[in-house]
Amino acid sequence: MTAHHVHTVFGACLGAAVRTKVLAVSPMAHITAVPSKGGADHGMVLDQEQLRALVEGFRGSVLFPIVATLAFTGCRRSEALALQWDDLDVGAKTLQIQRAVDQTDEGLALKGPKTANGKRTITIDDDLIALRIVAGVPDGVAVDLSLVKLPDGALMFPGMPGPGEGISFTKLRNPDNTTKEFVRRARKLGFVGLRLHDLRGSHETALLDAGMSVHVVAQRCGHDPAVLLRSYAKRTKGADTQAAAIIGAMFKGVLR
Hints:
By secondary structure, the protein is mainly alpha-helical. The chain is built from ten helices and five strands. It has helices at 2-19, 48-57, 64-73, 77-80, 126-130, 175-188, 198-209, 214-221, 225-232, 239-250, and strands at residues 88-89, 94-97, 100-104, 107-111, 120-123. β3 and β4 form a beta hairpin. The protein is globular, with a radius of gyration of 23 Å. Mean pLDDT is 83; it is low at 132-141.
């Protein structure tokens, strides 16, 4: 798809040069067009039971709260790893998405969300609010967060401390390493080929299959509605059966 887009744009530029007589002929006129595959591959989509099984399979892992957040909010990996405790409003049951983790030449850094629609406030349920974990604290260690004074900018999912390092609530977690850890454990659970980003598509598809309007799902996930429909509105296995049942109920008795 990238090669196809480059071919199209470069061809248009050189075509404009010919029309304005800057060039006598476009070199692109003699190059075979790169075919489009008809759309990008946005990975696997899990149905409701599969998504539940996956999240349950990560229980007890340091990745559990990250996986749960991605599955039940539809946010991007980079957005989840940039979440700070100040972004959570327990009383209003909302979570603010306003930044993302970016890999730069100097290392990991915070930036704005991927798109103009990226900055958003989403509602979360009580179970996700009640999820309590401090990344970097060994499993089985009880931590009372009310006794911990978090620094400004404290991350919900900070990076694990390196050798000889203490716990830092502001250390960014490496996105690529997080994905690798996820893929390894997901494969052991039987989810071969599943990517961390597929949880986002599964979240969106589940909401669309449940009858949620496109603009609401798009706003929740920071999408343009047209992009959501074109690229992410996939059907789960039971969606077509559900559609048939709805049509049958609407026109019950017509064919008898």
